[in-house]
Design a protein that fits this description.
Elements lengths: L5 H58 L1
């Protein structure tokens, strides 16, 4: 039984180096995504803001 306990510990070591590699990969795609998202954010709220106001107002008028 003692031999089986040390065996599973070995695979845990190689997993450690994989963790630091994972965050590096997602970090790259996050940077480019922020750039296109910044200009899209100000443009998106402006367009839906107009239709959103009349849509909400219509529902509020009948309720009032």
């Amino acid at each position: 039984m003692q031999d089986t306990t040390p065996m599973p510990v070995a695979p845990v070591e190689p997993m450690a180096p994989a963790a630091p590699m994972a965050p590096e990969a997602p970090v790259a795609p996050v940077e480019p995504m922020a750039a296109p998202m910044a200009p899209a954010a100000p443009t998106a709220p402006e367009v839906p803001a107009a239709p959103a106001t009349p849509a909400d107002g219509g529902m509020t008028q009948p309720g009032m």
